[in-house]
Design goal:
Elements (H helix, E strand, L loop, with lengths): L1 E7 L4 H11 L5 E7 L6 E5 L2 E5 L2 E10 L4 H9 L1
Antiparallel strand pairs: 1-5, 2-5, 3-4
Length: 79
């Protein structure tokens, strides 16, 4: 067994989950996380004040698969 860990955008979660289910993956751990990196942050305005949001909301997936499924599962996540 191998553990695959992936960080994805929340908007992509349903598509990734559906594709993994279609492939036969029956379970995964899903964790809401925040972080920063290449995507950077963004600025929001609240009650007239400007705030820099540096930590971006993401979803962390942890999936245990058989060794021969690793490449296909990674390919599905990357699509």
């Amino acid at each position: 067994m191998k553990m695959i860990t992936a960080i994805i955008k929340p908007l992509k979660f349903n598509d990734v989950k559906s594709a993994l289910e279609d492939f036969g993956i029956k379970g995964m751990t899903v964790i809401g996380v925040r972080g920063f990196g290449a995507q950077g942050g963004h600025t929001e305005i609240f009650r007239g004040a400007e705030y820099k949001i540096e930590l971006i909301e993401k979803i962390k997936l942890e999936i245990c698969v058989k060794a021969d499924q690793v490449e296909k599962v990674i390919e599905i996540i990357l699509e």
